[in-house]
Amino acid sequence: MIADALEILAPRIAAAGAAVEAPDGPVPAVHGGRVRLQQVLINLVSNSIDAMEGQDGPRHVRIGAAVRDGRVRLTVRDSGPGLTDPDRIFDPFFTTKPVGAGLGLGLSISYGIVQSFGGDIRAENCDGGGAMFTIDLPAARGDAAAA
Known about the structure:
Low-confidence stretches: 143-147
Oligomer: single chain
CATH architecture: 2-Layer Sandwich
Mean pLDDT: 89
Distance between the termini: 7 Å
Number of domains: 1
């Protein structure tokens, strides 16, 4: 799912002069829909690229994955300026983009998708700059539907 999302975004990543780092090995399957989770990841990476637009210095996005207590944690961290209002970031129609550049629905929809799979998504500013989105989802068990 991560590789597919990055393949879709490859032209945009290249045009932005960004570097994206993703896990090399397999990421454990999660309980959820592959296509909808891919949409969430595309939204998060796209927002990171948008946030870093026009900045001097490196434009870097790091996708991480870890397993703990039967849950899979995915992180998307960028080297951008950080979030201006992390407490409102998932509110419908909230956007920091210029008029015409976004409706403010992407993160709200992503929130709903993650919640529908029994997961949680949160956003925070990082020490040293940048923003990080963390998605916690139940790990798939046995023959459960997984992405």
